[in-house]
User: Fold Probable cytosol aminopeptidase from Hydrogenophaga aromaticivorans.
Amino acid sequence: MDFELKSLSHQQAARLPVDALLVLVPDGADVSGTADAALVNLIREANRRGDLEPGVGKALSCYRPQDIKASWVVLVRSGDGSASAVRKAVLAGMALLKQPGVKKLGLLLSLLDQDALAVRVAIMACADATYCFTTTKPSAKARTISQVVLGVSDATAARTEFAAGKAQVTGVELAKEWANRPANHATPSMLADAARKLGRKPGIRTEVLGPKEVAALGMGAFIAVAQGSAEPLRFIVMHYSGAAKTSAPVVLVGKGITFDTGGISIKPAAEMDEMKFDMGGAASVLGTFAALAELQPAINVVGLIPSCENMPDGLAVKPGDVVTSMSGQTIEVLNTDAEGRLILCDALTYAARFKPRSVIDIATLTGACVIALGAVRSGLFSARNELAQALGQAGDQSLDLCWRMPLDDEYAEGLKSNFADMGNVAGRAGGAITAAKFLQKFTADLPWAHLDIAGTAWKSGTAKGATGRPVPLLLQYLINEAGVATKAPARAAKATVKAARQK
Ligand code: BES
Ligand code: MN
Ligand code: ZN
Assistant:
């Protein structure tokens, strides 16, 4: 899907040679014009007759309206013009316009007061509304809209939002593609190949470690999860270099379980297919790197993806087995279905070598997080207030919401073991938090945050499919961080010192 940004008045939009025109109508839009004002006349008439109902997302479809070049015009209410209202409006309009006859679409935002701010969210909503997974279903109706012309009052003023929006779409769509693929079309080796392919893009470099190298690193917890599968594990290391070598990177760690059967602690059959999405964290890291390659922000980022299957097998790790993690801490594997934390803990230990500015792991980690927060907000865990705030803000800005959860030390009580430094589970109560407490034991002095995306990475039911979350949040966080790094290096350095002192 190609996007184009243009300065367009409503008069110019009326003459735009497109198959269809989607017009966002904010509350209180100025529809006073008369001469050469086919679009505002249309809106005024629709208002006067009550044909365009009040309410965000309410739409009116018009065929061959007078003096408008596009043969199909959809007016859609966009309320106060806030990001969430714009998203709702565009999704509603696109649901109507998703027809084979519409190849080139005009999307008019210039009636909005703050149309530059609406650009990113409008682009994302366009892409979300028309996304279609075809890799293993060639008969599916692929996206037919190939070009979208965004009309704003001042294209120059909207340029950065436009670039960020396009990069975000690239990232979200790559994340969706990989997360949606069934496990036999997305093995650890295939994920590694996808990462290698991204490594050919500007600023990106990819390394892939296999079982031998991972064993040499001493990643006993990761290896324990992988040992029950015929598919060899992969540890993917990606670098995006957008700033000076001396600039500390942000490290993103994505859980890459390409299928989670639960292992010997096997899961029930119902909905087990959805455990193909258990590499949603990994997919979000791949997606974020694709977006970085496109946007080229001034920041360094490292992506780490421990990837394997979690299978029951004669060689599989058994409940009660004790394994030694890369950190040297021993772990009693009380439940082989709590495998995400086992692969992540070794990747978090590995992350320390980059002397990171921050480390964020992204994982479909616990069913308990789905119970706690549902599908609306991802769980955010961090002992660092500044980092938690930055991620919370990035989520708000990008409409990819998260919610901070507690990390009191009392939650770690249940992880005690008589046979190892810790167990890998701590009972049902507060399961999302105890999982985070487990990970925290491997983050020592790192400025670390954990995003539990078990409820947000995919949708179940008839709309089953990956969401591409939290690529928008991660990209926004990195853009914000890059702003800090380039515009005010002194302030960024001071903030780091302050954070170090607070520890
Ligand atoms: N991948 C699952 C978490 C999950 C479950 C995500 C359902 C989304 C929907 C994870 O590996 C897992 O199995 N976690 C266990 C942990 C438990 C054994 C402590 C869980 O949540 O049940
Ligand atoms: Mn599991
Ligand atoms: Zn899992």
User: Anything to note?
Assistant: The domain at 168-485 is CATH 3.40.630.10 (Aminopeptidase). Residues 110 and 153 are 5 Å apart (CA to CA). Residues 260, 278, 335, 337-340, 364-368, 370, 425, 431, 454 surround BES (ligand 1) (CB under 6 Å). The two ends are 46 Å apart (CA to CA).
